[in-house]
Design brief:
mainly alpha; 8 helices; elongated
Length: 144
């Protein structure tokens, strides 16, 4: 954790970016460490939100470029789950991007939004909104 703090906000950005991919990583822990060591809360909020959103959009574009059947096999997703995702995304569209902040499933949501070719600008908007809201709540709780 200290290595991330040594490079400051760049470490927070990189950690937040990586946490939004399929890598098991905690951007919240890095954000908390930054806040508790005196980093500017607004700068941390913006940095973590942008890094995590760009990481999420990377997953989106990987899905956009990929074939759902191959992705499903690689991630060991059952066909029934793929059909449920398809129905959810067709019904809700880019609004599903609000849920990309969720642990474990958020990365799959971003990937699915890409696979099902949901509008990238709309996905970006809703994803940024959801991820920023999560970091805003965490920042508020840690700086009270």
């Amino acid at each position: 954790m200290l290595e991330w703090l040594e490079i400051g906000l760049a470490g927070l950005f990189i950690g937040s970016f990586l946490a939004a991919t399929i890598l098991p990583f905690s951007s919240e822990a890095i954000l908390a460490a930054c806040l508790m060591t005196g980093f500017d809360p607004l700068a941390c909020l913006i940095t973590a939100s942008l890094g995590n959103t760009l990481g999420g959009m990377t997953s989106y574009y990987l899905g956009y470029l990929g074939d759902w059947n191959k992705i499903g096999r690689w991630l060991r997703i059952k066909e029934g789950q793929i059909e449920r995702w398809d129905k959810l995304i067709k019904r809700r569209g880019a609004y599903v991007g609000l849920m990309c902040w969720l642990p474990f499933v958020g990365d799959m949501i971003a990937l699915a939004l890409g696979v099902f070719r949901v509008s990238a600008p709309r996905t970006l908007f809703w994803m940024l909104l959801g991820k920023t809201a999560r970091y805003a709540v965490l920042t508020f709780l840690l700086t009270r």
